[in-house]
From TrEMBL:
Lineage of source species: Bacteria, Bacillati, Bacillota, Negativicutes, Selenomonadales
Keyword Cell membrane: no
Chain ranges of the ABC transporter domain: 4-207
Keyword ATP-binding: yes
Any Pfam family hit: ABC_tran
Annotated GO MF terms: ATP binding; ATP hydrolysis activity
Name of the protein in question: ATP-binding cassette domain-containing protein
Top-level lineage group: Bacteria
The entry's keywords: ATP-binding, Nucleotide-binding, Transport
Organism whose genome encodes this protein: Selenomonas ruminis
Length: 209
């Protein structure tokens, strides 16, 4: 069981309040949507959950089986899909995946790699020898999903996961996220997409200041 608890969290930048105080708890087995208009702080909230950012006030506590996760113990269990993630443009899909998964001490054999490509709707004959810099934005988004699926993480923080995806790609995200939650993962996505909002089990709505 994994939980992320926001304890009276306030975020300010340059003295300007973005949101808060927020009191919320996210738990494994559920999809939580973070919603709100552009600039309301959705991405910021995910960064706080990932401990990539410290809140101006309050605490973000991540617990797993009664133990608090911090530093490496948190990073090992957490994966983030974000528009800020860039692939190395002069590496292939395989090269990028090997690099990113290698950082987590994971490796994929060829059979698992091919199965993963198929699962995210990337065709080997299209992308086999191409550099990631030649991919369309939707193909890159699918590759991010492949890295997520292979990461072994049980905390999924997804920033606009359906962005740049076609209808089939958006369905794929919904399906994979639901399966992940059913398998006991914690899924939290920041979204402005009504279908992703509707598919979530709960929502944190940021009002904007
Ligand atoms: N590191 C930072 N330093 C200063 N201001 C920041 C920083 N990060 C975010 N902000 C500001 O905080 C506010 C919230 O930004 P954030 O990216 O979290 O919003 P968002 O809800 O994800 O927006 P969008 O829907 O456009 O993706 C914005 O006004 C942004 O300019």
């Amino acid at each position: 069981m994994v939980t992320i608890r926001f304890e009276e969290v306030i975020q300010r930048f340059h003295g300007r309040t973005i949101f808060g105080p927020i009191q919320a708890e996210l738990a494994s087995g559920r999809i939580v949507a973070v919603t709100g208009q552009n600039g309301s702080g959705k991405s910021t909230l995910l960064k706080l959950a990932a401990h990539l950012l410290l809140p101006t006030a309050g605490r973000v506590v991540v617990m797993a089986d009664g133990r608090e996760l911090v530093g490496d113990s948190l990073r090992r269990r957490l994966a983030m899909v974000t528009p800020e993630l860039r692939f190395y443009p002069r590496l292939t899909a395989r090269g990028n995946m090997d690099f990113l998964l290698g950082l987590r001490g994971r490796a994929l054999d060829e059979t698992a790699y091919q199965a993963l490509l198929e699962r995210v709707g990337l065709r080997e004959k299209e992308i086999g020898t191409a550099f990631a810099g030649e991919f369309s934005t939707g193909m890159r988004q699918r590759l991010k999903l492949a890295v997520l699926l292979a990461s072994g993480a049980d905390i999924w923080l997804l920033d606009e996961p359906g962005a740049n995806l076609d209808a089939a790609g958006r369905k794929l995200i919904l399906r994979e996220a639901r399966q992940a939650a059913d398998e006991g993962r914690l899924v939290c996505w920041a979204t402005n997409d009504e279908r992703e909002e509707a598919a979530a089990d709960a929502a944190i709505k940021l009002a904007g200041h």
